[in-house]
Task: structure prediction
Amino acid sequence: MSNFRSYHISRRNFLKSASALGALGTVAPSLLTSGAAHAAGHGAVLTGSHWGAFRATVTDGRWTSVKGWEGDKNPTAMLEGVMDSVYAPSRIKYPMVRRAFLEQGAGAAVEQRGAGDFVRVSWDQAIDLVVSELQRARDTHGPAGTFAGSYGWKSPGKLHNCQNLLRRALNVGMNGAFVNSTGDYSTGASQIIMPHVMGTLEVYEQQTVWPVVMESTDLLVFWGADPLKTNQISWLVPDHDVYSYMQAFKDTGKPVICIDPIRTDSAEFFNAEWVPIRPQTDVAMMLGMAHTLHTEGLADTAFLDDYTVGFDKFLPYLMGDTDGTPKTAEWAADICGVPADQIKDLARRFTQNRTMLASGWSIQRMHHGEQGHWMLVTLASMLGQIGLPGGGFGLSYHYAGGGTPSATTPVLPGITDGGKAVEGAAWLTEAGAATIPLARVVDMLESPGAEFDFNGTRDKFPDVKMVYWVGGNPFAHHQDRNRMVKAWQKLETVIVQDHQWTATARFADIVLPATTTYERNDLEHIGDYSLKAMLAMKKVIDPVFEARNDYDIFAEIADRLGKGSEFTEGKDEMGWLRSFYASAESQAQAQKIDLPDFDTFWEQGVVEFPASDAAKSFVRYADYREDPLLEPLGTPTGKIEIFSRNIEKMGYDDCPPHPTWMEPVEWLGAADPQYPLHVNTAHPISRLHSQLNGTKLRQGYAVADREPCLINTQDAAARGISDGDVVRVFNGRGQILAGAVVTDDITPGVIRVAEGGWYDPVEGGEVGSLDAYGDVNVLTVDQGTSKLAQGNCGHTAMAQVEKFTGTLPPVTVFDAPAGA
Ligand code: PGD
Ligand code: PGD
Result:
């Protein structure tokens, strides 16, 4: 992958990490010493972020250098971008209001949103406007007039949780008058199907731990997963110990297989066998393997009998009795592009070895995304290794250090959203759904009153006229940008609170500048799965320009609504942090865990906790395997459901009651000749979604100033495209510019433009405008994965690519709008 210019920052970083690991030899549990605390000091402030804990040096009030916390053996190179983001030209400096909105009121010239015509206002004026708009929206349109279902990767921290704070302000101040959302963009399909199949969300659960994998797994399969890339960040503050485990696994010399349309950094690192698969066809490939196992008598029928239900109903489908199509390896090969012999060989090797099927999440972020992980579970059940050390499947080895042993630790509570207030319940039935599946936000704006299905329920969309978004970037994360721009024009008022001039902020009416994590105090755990430490996230610098803390902004809004003291409960920032810590202290006392008092902790900056021997040998589903009657799963039958009666009862045509291959709405097997290339929208290597795209890290991966577009050598040659050319990527939904990276590490017929590039329409907010930088969601399909989960289909899109020969528009999105 060294030819991927876009990757070199993180590659360099990993090489650096790998040498640190070399010194470790084996994984170092000695890191986790009970109650051990790193002394604060080193002349730098210790704090943390989605990218890890770090020390920040401040010179004359300015943050000047950053260094990973010494307890993090594998810090990410993205930390440089974290520092840069604070001072980036894209930083929002002042409260701003769109000129037409300010002069003519809500709903004025909505088609001009995105054109960048903002006027600076005082904080006082801005808060006045926000409060009067909240009241106006409710008085005019009722309690369902405002959408506050804000989704996104807000910063970690137990207090400055901007989304809870928004909903808290509206719960206490507006009596709960807002529409909320449920789910997330990461695992929208899996988190709904898995409770039917396994009885848990599965995607966010602890995995069989890495020490066990190292010891017992003979064959490690990454199925649509790139753990080297995606483990750099986490929802809380990552510990990055998983990199030491991955190095240790590699050192065992055991084989690794990567099934992916791209030969990833992980494939290169593990020197893995790369199985290039046609995108969106994993279910077919798994069915071909299942057919092989069954017909060759290799399936573990005892496991299927004892631990699963419904295989007998799935088998006729597998064998073609129900639809006339046996799901043979040859049938699968035609669909997925992996040769039949290789499919059969893989199936046999999976049974002959203790095999861990570690899947990422992209394979469920696509049309019919529910089926991928359901079929993976079915395949793993036929292999019969679920619950055995090192065998089975895992859906989180690539994320936030899944599989890192969990420490015994108290858990810090955080600020709550105040609970849905009375008004919320009363208007529910009349106005429509009080909560929508989040990826259906554009459907909601387009079609108020329309009915929608969701996981066995049916509801109708409310009539929303105002949106308040904090801690997320829907103009990066949502699909089919042009459709979205149009839907946004139906809104009278859009308020966005962020620290960056994202496209979402540019398409708003009122823009409020929030502080970054590094301009305020907070608390957080280190290690989403390991919970290995508690971190004092200390303020590094004073707020820049006129940025204010989300907490203070919402406290003031609540105050103007007459509910200030209900919002603050009489506490200031440190008062809240002390109260969260006090809860941890009482848990610690009950659990007999040593915990310093708050002042000592705050002074030390961090307190670490060890993992027990039991945690270090945790095997997922070992209990269930040991005793399925006493340790049943949370499914209706208590067993793994290969056939779900509940899903059968829902009767959805796009989600049958057992895993099923269904053609996606757009895919390579039925390509419109106009748009013959599949668009892979994998997550970016050197940023978190759109975060840090505005920083100097971009210089490490941008090609001709644009987001990189990986294209296979043959596809590039056929189009006269050379490495480094600016290309236009387009389909019936829209068009973007990108910079070509010509490589054989992507399968022919597939291009990759990572999600999260900032939308930079050449003609301002005009629908259909050419995007100068490369927001891949201009091209993607905006529809639910199925009626069951209604997840997003970010990985479903076909497009064409051509060399761009017109006058090259400059990229302007990384600077603030004029005058801002
Ligand atoms: P981020 O870029 O992380 O993207 O979508 P998400 O909206 O989470 O945006 C977070 C925003 O919050 C940033 O603008 C940041 O500045 C702001 N922010 C951070 N901290 C704070 C804070 O403390 N206060 C305030 N006010 N603002 C803050 C990500 C989403 O994209 C996700 S999670 C996934 S998994 C999806 N992935 C794909 C995909 O694979 N393919 C496609 N095509 N599309 C996707 N979209 C989804
Ligand atoms: P992706 O990069 O989208 O990551 O984790 P997720 O596993 O979803 O996809 C992983 C791999 O799947 C990619 O190599 C991609 O090529 C491959 N793939 C795509 N389509 C197919 C297919 O049809 N079949 C198969 N077999 N493989 C396919 C995302 C996770 O990462 C999430 S949800 C979040 S919110 C975080 N986001 C980031 C981030 O933005 N940047 C970094 N560096 N790290 C992250 N970690 C988290």
User: Anything to note?
Assistant: Residues 123-141 form the longest helix (19 residues). Residues 186, 223-226, 229-230, 232-233, 259-262, 264, 277, 279-280, 282, 360-363, 398-399, 680, 682-685, 688-689, 795 surround PGD (ligand 2) (CB under 6 Å). The first strand starts at residue 45 and ends at 49.
